[in-house]
């Protein structure tokens, strides 16, 4: 029975015509798919070779074109280096610093326009998706600036004869396996990343964008996103973790959240190395106006500012170091910046809410002592090892405000010479009022002294220093200072008080106030300290300060010597008294023994007489 909607002849004609058209369309699509797949493969391979001057070639096991879906699929895509071409470029000094190799199981080009490619020679694709790409990047410093090449043409100029322009809306790479090999150091350094995502937007290669410096690799924006990255250093002494890392080339910003760098336990660490043990954790870090292209090409870190917010940094001096070892000059900031495996130029570094701890083990007291700087904020200007930048300005300036031992408001300014062979630097500091007993966590292990009472009014010091010496002035104003001298209790592994010595120190040695009386000129002390090679930057500053603090409270070298002699005499007298006491006890014991023997002899004689 005929259908009701086919009761008219024109209905049947329309249906038949439509059916024929659809069939012809599918036949045409099949023919085009079959025809275009090899054409497209040839076009892609040819474009890669031309764009890279034959340095790279691309290959894939199969390519499917689906005209009706507007989609192209490539399977087992491999981008590889032509080694002979690379060697020839290297011999001519034209080889790039970075080399890539990529393997992708499946590459999908969505919403393509094949007729534009065939008739207009235009590549226009809405999206490219890569499934589980395996990327390997190797870096070797072949040159430090753009090489001079006879062929000055851009990529667009090289492909313009066969393709007018290339446009891709989005490029998505998810779950990337990334392996990075760095040949620039003394030995090969290998890093591996997993679960990294990469997204590039608005890739456009044409006559206008060939010189567009606002684009990176012809893309309007490239976003790299790395989550939960963990690893261990090559020596196995440290573990590191990054919760999130994100790079956006459009806003030229690198963001890091939740970065930690932690050492193994102290016993294992100090058993393997003589290095100092340090650790840090950063809540967030922003590198602004970061020139990623320069970093990618030449390992140059250029940025307008680096912002670090919420950071805990701790340094523990290795107690097992021998007395003679190489100079620790590399701990100086104006020397350490040259140890960075990159050229660095950061105009401003801003620190917010940073906590710094310096600790060291004192062998005499057998205890660990620590100095804390809490809630530190400040700026570092002109952090650079770039030769051109140093010719204009060779001084790095550091201004910090902190709380010493989480109590005293402490402000300091450093000026470091970045080109001086002796690593010259100067610094000034001021600290406001606080209870002096809070420094006992450092003073007791380091000096075996405990402050039982005292109020700091202010502390000011100024030094000019370098790798050899520290010269400066220390002025400390305080009231009602009293101390207790300590000695090591080897039985209980602690410190106990010296009652007599403490009384002697408080009465005869210490100056309890500075100035000694209202209206008098405060005491200031000039320091000239020779730096020991094993003094790190922090330790050199601390030891210089100590040499001013000790005489400020009346405990200078002369007093220390006199005190030692007097205490030695006191100990000698004590020993003499003890010896005399022991001698008296010995004589009493001897007399007692004689009486006992005499008594026993008489009793024996009586017993003998009774028997007779």
Major sheet summary line: 23 strands, mixed
Which whole number gives the mean pLDDT?
80
Straight-line distance between termini = 163 Å
Number of helices: 12
Percent of residues in helices comes to 25-40%
Instruction: Name the shape in a single word.
Output: elongated
Approximate strand percentage = 35-45%
Total of domains:
2
The poorly predicted ranges are 10-35
Over all CA atoms, what is the radius of gyration? Answer: 39 Å
Count all strands and give the number.
23
Structural class: alpha+beta
Protein name: AsmA-like protein
Organism: Mucilaginibacter ximonensis
Keywords: Membrane, Transmembrane, Transmembrane helix
Descriptive terms for the model:
23 strands, 612 residues, alpha+beta
Describe the SSE topology:
Elements: H1 9-51, E1 56-59, E2 62-66, E3 71-81, H2 83-91, E4 98-112, H3 114-120, E5 122-131, E6 134-139, H4 155-159, E7 165-182, E8 189-205, E9 219-232, E10 238-248, E11 253-263, H5 266-272, E12 277-288, H6 292-298, E13 300-317, H7 333-336, E14 343-362, E15 367-384, H8 387-392, E16 395-404, E17 408-417, E18 425-431, E19 434-435, H9 440-447, E20 449-465, E21 469-489, E22 494-497, H10 499-509, E23 524-530, H11 537-552, H12 557-611
Parallel strand pairs: 5-7, 6-7, 13-14
Antiparallel strand pairs: 1-3, 2-3, 3-4, 4-5, 4-6, 7-8, 8-9, 9-10, 10-11, 11-12, 12-13, 14-15, 15-16, 16-17, 17-18, 18-20, 19-20, 20-21, 21-22, 21-23
């Amino acid at each position: 029975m005929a259908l009701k909607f086919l009761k008219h002849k024109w209905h049947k004609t329309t249906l038949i015509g439509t059916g024929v058209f659809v069939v012809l369309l599918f036949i045409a699509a099949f023919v085009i798919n079959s025809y275009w797949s090899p054409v497209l493969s040839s076009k892609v391979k040819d474009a890669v070779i031309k764009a890279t001057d034959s340095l790279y070639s691309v290959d894939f096991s199969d390519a499917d074109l689906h005209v009706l879906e507007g989609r192209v699929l490539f399977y087992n895509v491999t981008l590889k280096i032509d080694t002979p071409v690379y060697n020839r470029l290297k011999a001519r000094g034209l080889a790039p610093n970075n080399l890539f190799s990529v393997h992708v199981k499946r590459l999908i080009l969505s919403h393509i326009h094949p007729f534009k490619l065939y008739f207009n020679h235009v590549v226009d694709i809405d999206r490219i998706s890569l499934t589980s790409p395996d990327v390997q990047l190797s870096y070797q410093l072949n040159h430090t600036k753009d090489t001079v090449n006879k062929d000055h043409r851009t990529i667009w100029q090289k492909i313009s004869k066969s393709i007018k322009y290339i446009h891709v809306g989005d490029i998505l790479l998810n779950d990337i396996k990334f392996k990075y090999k760095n040949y620039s150091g003394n030995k090969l350094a290998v890093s591996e990343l997993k679960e990294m995502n990469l997204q590039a937007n608005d890739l456009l290669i044409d006559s206008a964008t060939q010189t567009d410096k606002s684009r990176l690799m012809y893309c309007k924006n490239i976003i790299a996103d790395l989550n939960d990255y963990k690893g261990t250093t090559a020596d196995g002494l440290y573990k590191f973790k990054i919760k999130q890392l994100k790079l956006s080339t459009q806003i030229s910003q690198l963001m890091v959240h939740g970065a930690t760098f932690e050492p193994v336990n102290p016993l294992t660490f100090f058993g393997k190395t003589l290095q100092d043990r340090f650790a840090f954790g950063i809540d967030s870090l922003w590198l602004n106006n970061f020139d990623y292209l320069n970093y990618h090409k030449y390992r140059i870190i250029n940025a307008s500012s680096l912002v670090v917010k919420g950071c805990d940094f701790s340094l523990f001096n290795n107690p097992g170091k021998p007395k003679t070892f190489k100079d620790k000059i590399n701990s100086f900031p104006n020397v350490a910046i040259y140890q960075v495996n990159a050229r660095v130029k950061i105009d401003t570094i801003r620190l917010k809410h940073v906590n710094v701890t310096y600790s060291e083990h004192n062998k005499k007291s057998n205890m660990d002592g620590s100095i804390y700087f809490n809630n530190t904020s400040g700026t570092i200007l002109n952090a650079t090892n770039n030769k051109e930048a140093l010719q204009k300005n060779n001084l790095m300036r550091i201004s910090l405000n902190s709380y010493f031992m989480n109590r005293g408001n402490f402000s300091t300014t450093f000026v470091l010479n970045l080109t001086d062979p002796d690593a010259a630097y100067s610094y000034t500091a001021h600290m406001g009022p606080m209870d002096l007993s809070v420094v006992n966590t450092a003073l007791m292990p380091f000096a075996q002294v405990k402050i039982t009472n005292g109020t700091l009014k202010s502390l000011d010091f100024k030094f000019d220093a370098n790798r050899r010496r520290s010269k400066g002035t220390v002025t400390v104003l305080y009231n009602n200072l009293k101390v207790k001298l300590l000695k090591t209790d080897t039985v209980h592994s602690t410190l106990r008080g010296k009652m007599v010595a403490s009384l002697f120190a408080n009465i005869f040695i210490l100056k309890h106030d500075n100035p000694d009386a209202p209206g008098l000129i405060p005491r200031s002390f000039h320091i000239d300290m020779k730096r020991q090679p094993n003094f790190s930057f922090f330790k050199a500053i601390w030891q210089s300060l100590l040499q001013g603090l000790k005489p400020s409270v009346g405990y200078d070298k002369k007093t220390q010597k006199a005190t030692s002699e007097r205490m030695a005499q006191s100990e000698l007298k004590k020993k003499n008294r003890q010896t005399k006491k022991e001698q008296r006890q010995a004589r009493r014991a001897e007399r007692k023994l004689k009486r006992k023997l005499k008594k026993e002899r008489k009793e024996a004689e009586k017993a003998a007489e009774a028997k007779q």
